[in-house]
Amino acid sequence: MRKYLLLLIGCTTIGLVFFTFIHYSETGAIPTFRLQSEKYMVAILITNALGFVIFQIDRLLDKIIHWKSNFLLRFISGLGANILLIILFFAFIGKHIFEINGEAPIKLTMLFIISIFIYEIFYGLFYSYRHYAVTQAEQLRSERWQLELQFESLKSQISPHYLFNCLNTVSSLLYKDTRVAEEFIRRMADTFRYVLNHQTQKLVPLREELEFVKSYYFLLQVRYEYHLQLEINVPQNILDSMIPPMTLQLLVENAVKHNSISKDQPLLVYISAVDNTSLIIYNTKTSSLKPVTSFRVGLENIHKRYSFFTHEKVIVRDDEKFLVQLPVLKKNLAL
What we know:
The chain has helices at residues 2-27, 33-64, 71-98, 104-157, 160-173, 178-197, 206-223, 247-258, 294-307; strands at residues 204-205, 228-233, 242-243, 267-274, 278-283, 315-318, 322-327. Helices cover 65% and strands 10% of the residues. α3 packs antiparallel against α4 and α8 packs antiparallel against α9 (294-307). The chain contains 9 helices and 7 strands; from the N terminus they run ααααααβαββαββαββ.
């Protein structure tokens, strides 16, 4: 609605100015609205009608030729189409409506052509600025959403409950095996260092994520008295591919949360690759624990984070074993 109001104001102003100029150039006198009100109204009506048609032509051309893909072609096509409209209008209709002769039709046509040239420049600049502003806003919104999703993963990793479990395990190890306790503390420091160092990064190398998972796995293995097993079989040529940070850790954590782990019911988590195009993370299933609310939330977090970087879907299968298939992301995505 606002753009049509601006169009009305602009075209009305142009109609008043053009009629005043033509009348003065032909008669040498400035017209008064009282004596020339009818001609003023005709001029306003015609300029608004032409302005509306020109605006609709530009909107149609916007759908056919995009400013972003070919600015010059779009500018020339808009300018040419609208100038042709003005020439045809004054050649067959305009001079009869305005009752003008001599050089007046040529002057009026030139005024309209100059106005259209200026209009097309501003129209193109406005469209380009608006497209830039929208693109920037979408990019900022996307980055904010990614950070929010990353923050959710971060919160789960450094939650007081997680920290309490780690410290409680260290406390018990100090009286049993100081060597393992020292290794546990070192690995715990590694996990927190990784989390804090990558909390704002969108993607990290798979190699680093796997090292992080190994440290995290050691903490879990000690906690569950070695009834949890992690096997990693990932080819060297995809270790430099990218992955959203803490994705694998979240899947390992979900496996632990969702299954009972004991000597009689050991849990196996396996990480491998398929044709160097996707990562496979699956875990065996033991007797289920009480349903964990955060389980589906964590998977949804992974789905959303991957959607920023690829159209390939994250595949989840839940049958005899629980399996998640992640697309391998190219290294240049992190640039």
